Amino acid sequence: MAVRIRQTQEGVTYRMPLMLSLQSAGNTTRETIQSTARDQTFTIGLDDKPTKIILDPDEWVLKEMMN
What we know:
Blueprint: E1 2-6, E2 16-24, E3 27-35, E4 39-43, E5 52-55
Antiparallel strand pairs: 1-4, 2-3, 2-5
């Protein structure tokens, strides 16, 4: 699975860990990715296709998300 993270704010690019919650067939997995650039794509190996993906499930990051 590929996840794309884009930082669209003006000014400095933030370096931060981001948590992903990946749900599939009764199983939930959490993965941490390191955001270090304005536009990054991360590849995450999964056994099953996820039914739901939640970026920052604990709501630590001030953000606006777009599908």
